[in-house]
Design goal:
Chains A, B: Pfam families: CRISPR_Cas6 (PF10040). Chains A, B: GO terms for molecular function: hydrolase activity, acting on ester bonds. Chains A, B: InterPro entries: CRISPR-assoc_Cas6_C, CRISPR-assoc_prot_Cas6. The structure is a homodimer. Chain A is α+β, with helices and mostly antiparallel strands. In chain A, about 35% of the residues lie in helices and about 35% in strands. Chain A has a five-stranded antiparallel beta sheet, with helices on both faces. Chain A has a four-stranded antiparallel beta sheet with strand order 9-10-6-11, with helices on both faces. Chain A is globular and about 55 Å long. The mean pLDDT of chain A is about 90. Chains A and B meet through β9 of A and β9 of B.
C-alpha cells in the first residue's frame, strides 16, 4: 500500500531553507517512532518512506509518504497523532494545522494505469532538490535513464510481489522517451554541514512507442510521487509531482 | 582578425521574438553586401560571421561578429555605413543609434589568454537560443563535449593558420572540465515557419587540470563570444558571453 500525508504546518521558516527542514523532520520522525522499527530502518537499504518540505502559497507543506503497510503503521499513523513538530534547530516549533491523507494499493496503482490511455506528454516537477549518483559522482542534470532506473529500483524494493526493473526495459525507455522541454537550475541540498549538488525545476517528457510502454511509464511516475526520485528521498530530496 | 559590432537599434520589437529578428537581419546582411561575396557565403560551409539580437535594458542590441578580415571588410564595414535597418517583416524599420566596435587579432587573442592565469571558474551565458546537432538529432542540454567540440571546430575553420581540434584534446577537456552549476530552460528558435529546439540560460564551468588547459579553455570561450556556439550562429542562435 502507498500512503501519502500532506501535512500543513504553521510556523516560521527561513527562506529557501526548506532543505534544512527535510533533514530535521527526518530526525523528528526517528525520535517519534517505535525504536525497534527505527533501528530496522537504519540498518536496511530499503527506505519504505519519503518525505519533503515545500512551500505552497506561503504555507509550509510537509509531505510524508510511506511505501508499504508496515511503514504506514509505524511512521505515518504515528505522526498523524502528533499536534506539534518540535525541531531542535533554534528551538523551532511547527503546529500541524491540517492533514490530508491519500492511500492507494499497488494493485489499484497498476490497474488505474493500465486500464486507461496514459498521457504521452507529461510534465514532471522536481519539487525539492533532486540528484543522482553515477560512478561515485553526483549528476546535476536529469536524464530518462537516471529517472526511470531510480523509479524502477525503488518500485522493486518497495512492492514485495512485483519486479519491473530490467536492463532491456530501461533501454526501451531510453529509446522511446525523451525530455522535450525543461526549466531547471542547479542547487544544493544542505545536509550535516555539507552540500549535496542537486537540481530543481521541471521537465516535459514525450513518450513514444506502444501503449503498454506509455502506461508503464505513467505508472512509474505516479509511483514516484510517493517514492521520490534519485538519492536521499528520506531526508527531503527528490520530491516530484506531475501533470 | 576577430571583429565585433555592437549596434544599438531604435524600433519596436515583439516581446520574446528576438529570434525572428535574427533571421531577418541575416536577410538584411545578404541584401546589403557585395553579391559576389554573398554567393561565396552561400556556397561555403565556412561561416566567417555570427550575429544575434538581444535586449539589454529595453534596448535592442544587434551584435554582428566577423571572424576574419575578409568578412570584416565585406560584412561589418558595409553594415557600419548604414543608418537604418529595413526589415521586410511587417515593414519594420530600425534606426541605428550607436555602433561600438571591437577588434582583436588571433595572435593577440592567443597571447592575451596564455600570458595570464585563466579563470578556473567561468560563467557562460547563452544569450540567444542555442542548440547542437548530434546523430541527426537536436540536443537540448549543453555538455562540455558539445560546447568545446563546437568551439574548436569553429576556431579551426575561422583562423587560417592554427588547428586546435583533436579527439585527444576534446577528451582531456571532458575529463577536466565540468558543469558545476546552471540555470537553463528549453526554448525554440523560429526559423522559416519551423521551430528549432534549443536552450537558453547560463552554466558555470569548473576547469581543473594544468594551467595550459585552463588558458586554452578560456581562449576558446573568448573566441566563442565572436563565433557563437552550436548550430545556426549566422542567423541568431548560439550567442554567448562569459564572466
Amino acid at each position: 500500500m502507498l500512503s501519502s500525508l500532506r501535512i500543513e504546518l504553521e510556523g516560521e521558516i527561513e527562506k529557501s531553507r526548506n532543505d534544512l527542514l527535510g533533514s530535521l523532520f527526518q530526525g523528528f520522525i526517528m525520535k517519534n517512532i517505535y525504536k525497534g522499527y527505527a533501528d530496522i530502518l537504519h540498518m536496511s537499504t530499503l527506505h519504505p518512506y519519503s518525505q519533503y518540505v515545500t512551500r505552497v502559497d506561503n504555507k509550509i507543506i510537509w509531505t510524508l509518504n510511506t511505501l508499504n503497510i508496515e511503514a504506514k503503521e509505524n511512521i505515518a499513523d504515528k505522526i498523524k497523532q502528533i499536534e506539534k513538530v518540535n525541531i531542535k534547530y533554534r528551538e523551532k516549533e511547527y503546529k500541524i494545522t491540517s492533514i490530508k491523507e491519500e492511500n492507494i494499493s499497488y494493485k489499484d496503482l497498476v490497474k488505474e494505469n493500465y486500464l486507461r490511455d496514459g498521457k504521452r506528454i507529461l510534465k514532471v516537477k522536481f519539487l525539492t532538490p533532486t540528484s543522482f549518483k553515477q560512478d561515485g559522482r553526483y549528476v546535476l542534470f536529469p536524464s530518462i535513464r537516471l529517472i526511470f532506473q531510480s523509479l524502477m529500483m525503488k518500485f522493486d524494493k518497495a512492492s514485495t510481489d512485483m519486479e519491473v526493473f530490467s536492463k532491456d526495459i530501461l533501454e526501451t525507455f531510453e529509446n522511446n522517451i525523451e525530455i522535450c522541454g525543461y526549466k531547471l537550475r542547479s542547487t544544493a541540498f544542505h545536509l550535516d554541514g555539507t552540500k549535496v549538488p542537486a537540481f530543481i525545476g521541471e521537465i516535459t517528457v514525450n513518450i513514444k512507442g506502444p501503449k503498454q510502454l506509455v502506461n508503464f511509464a505513467n505508472m512509474l511516475i505516479a509511483f514516484g510521487t510517493y517514492s521520490g526520485v534519485g538519492i536521499k528521498t528520506g531526508i527531503g530530496m527528490g520530491g516530484i509531482a506531475f501533470e
